[in-house]
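Worked example 4.2. Below are the chains of a multi-component assembly; read each line carefully before continuing.
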Amino acid sequence: MSALTRARTWLDERFHWADLVGPLKKKTVPVHRLSYWYFLGGITLFLFIIQVCTGILLLLYYRPGANEAFESVQYIMTRVQFGWLVRSIHSWAANLMILTAFAHMFSVVFLRAYRKPRELTWLSGMVLLFLALGFGFSGYLLPWNTLAFFATKVGTEITGQVPVVGRHLMIFLRGGEDVTGATLTRFFGFHVAVLPGLTTLFVLIHLALVQYFGMSVPPGVEARWKTSPQEARQMKFFPNFFLRELMAWYIALGVLGALAAILPWELGTKADPFAPAPAGIRPEWYFMFMFQTLKKIPAKLWFVDGEVVGILVFGAAGLVWMLLPFFDKAGGGRGRKFIMGAGVFALAYIIAMTFYGYAAK
Amino acid sequence: MKTEEPGRIQPLRRRMVEMLLGGGLFASIVSAIYPVLRYLVPPPVADLGGDEIVAAKVGDLKPNSSKIVRFGTRPALLLMTSEGEYRALSAVCTHLSCTVQYRNDLHQVWCACHNGMYDLNGRNISGPPPRPLEVYQVHVRGDEIVISRKREA
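Applying the procedure described above to all two chains together yields the following structure tokens:
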């Protein structure tokens, strides 16, 4: 008996192996011309795993603190062997992960995978997206360079504009009135302890829900399969879909490695809190559409601050977006049209404002 | 068109595919693990101390007293015997690398961690230390007391 079979028998005697792998064996993935969109969530998960691994590696040499952070990242990039690669992969994977998460979200909207009974899967996914944005915002400051310092100043200042709780929230985020070494310590704590814990929890919930409900079939395909059941095709999750997913991960790894090696992430100059902000301060690209909108709103709208209006509108839009699945059943066709319209509008708005933000200085 | 005999040709092709797949996978894993292993090795710390430092000024030490000084990256023990003679020793215990101290009541060098004892020439005389402490040379240059590593003759 080979060692593998022995190990399996050992486990089988204790846990009843068939029960453990049963759900995985039963799981199937629908096969149709839109099946490619099923890969995006998995690729996002893969990039998150890359982030955990490279993040742990960076923790070996990174030192939080206004006097040490920049120098330690510089040390990683210049002295530690392959340190430049590890940091570059961490930065690139972070950006690609946000990108694939957004693509995953919009594919769910347009393929209407959010509809009953998957409302909670959508909600847990939205929480994961916000956590990912939190990772991006907190991680951006950690190298303590000029660009990140001022972007964090602006970002937390915007938080401070939220009515009633804004100021307290800003002081909580900054660890004081201003962005200082105390802010860096906090962001470091959020980035390496609070957010990873929450994200792991929500990833597990999200995956459990996906596993429980199975893959959603787009309504158009579903209708066709109902009229002619002989067309309906399914693929076993294990090993058929699993191996395809691995291939997608492998391609993602290739793209990631190439980007990290050919276009290594820059470090910039060390932040000086008493130097004037240089030209071209901007947030990470995925915050750009909000940043650009706030820049374009007039200072005063009627009698309220323009920025406050912008934040309230974004807050309301975010809330509606989170509750999107719940509009589907209300009013039948009307609700459906509203969701599609909202999806197209959101995608167009984000893309247009992002490009505008980069084109206009 | 000639069809191939399934039983004979296919195993070879299959083995070929398996070799290519396995080799590619192996190369991928190695190319991921190698940088990580290299990354885990800390870069060497530059020893800027050199072989010689100014440990104290003349008059800093009274007879039967001592001081710990930084020598390169490690601590060293400079002491003045009751007779007024300077001695310099490595302050790193040869047992488990604690920092030793001069006991002016015993006129010996003592390691507090496991009660190791050395004489003023660095010889291990009692307790667990397996080897004597490294002895450094002491020179008085003007009003500076300089300690240096002994050169192998």
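Take a moment to check your reading of the output against the notes. The CA atoms of residues 54 and 86 of chain A lie 6 Å apart. The mean pLDDT of chain A is 91.
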